[in-house]
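Person: Please work through this fold.
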Amino acid sequence: MSAIGLLQRALRKYKQDGVRSFLKEGKYSFFESKPVRSVLRYQILEKNGMKPIVYDDLPELSQPVDTIWEVFDDDQRAAVPDPIPPKTRISKTRSFDQVETHSPVSPIVIEIRDCRLLHPFGLTLCEQGVLPETIAKSTSPSSRVGKALSKSVSDHGYREVDNFISGQYPDSLESLPVATPLLPLWGNYYHWTIECLPRLAGVERHQNKTGVKPTIIIPENPSSWMLESLELLGIDDDRLHPLEDHCTVDQLVVPTHPGPTVAECEWVRDQMHDAVDYPTIANDTANNRIYISRRNATRRRVKNEREVADLLRSRGFDRYVLEELSVSDQIALFANAEVIIAPHGAGLANIVYSEFSSIIELFGDSKKTTFYRLAELLGHDYQYTHNPTKFGDIVVNLERLEQCLTKAGLEE
């Protein structure tokens, strides 16, 4: 992004969140830089003998030894797809089918005793090392572990974090008997919906096996849509514990980090569909051709949105701003949608609630596999357009968009 684009985004962020949040994020940006993250990982984690624990070693951590379960039944595990690409950025010249793929691992849930959680993201430490599964897939944890550690140092200072990791902390520190962390590294709708909510399938399996309802550790200042989604999934308020400081947990219930897999996505979709009675709501409130606007976002707004909206209106589309809708209404909207057009952004996570829809994603000067891979998992038809950008916003090429509409059978 250009310097002007960064300044424009910063000003929008300042207007939306205020000066205190703006300055705090600026401080964190320093600690999050790759050189600083690398130094912190070495100075704090490796110095204290804390190395990431890989997926294959998780069964050895489960205490007692029989407290490890597959999250889904055999018939559901059979739905794990062919290899899929990782969530990554790719160059303009590469197509999605050229990206190296991997096979998602089968989700499991385990119990681990005597854990420590770092505020604010719940980076988890146990006797054997760092447990990345609370924030990242253990197959590639380095970047996310560094991010979580950097944020903790930014908020609490180097000395306090170093002492906590080395086991020096006050007796007054809060301790929870049985808990599971639900703490996204990024507080946006995508990371919550796709990386946090599927973990509740593991919590449900644990509860069915043990009869115990673990406390759900959530962000210190959860958004309204986080709380609404938990309510829809049947999590009562008295089970929620906002993480306001480091804490210890006697028995940590750990569902592995979502792949995601088909079974995980379908579990979230089916639970939410049942919760909102979507056929009734959708038929009353939504069109089945929808365009998602990012007019309230700090970046990747559509610069020529009026022209885009006029074109799409002629093809039967309605425009929606997701920030103005409840989670229930977003679920209903996407569940009923046959065609979904949107700039790349967190709101497209809602395609997890759609069934065999046609997706057209609008990219700027870079593209990511995020929603392509989700569409592939869920059996959606997927297209995208590359477009020029101006100061971080997208200028949609109307001719390319029309070509996508024609390919999707949406002629005038």
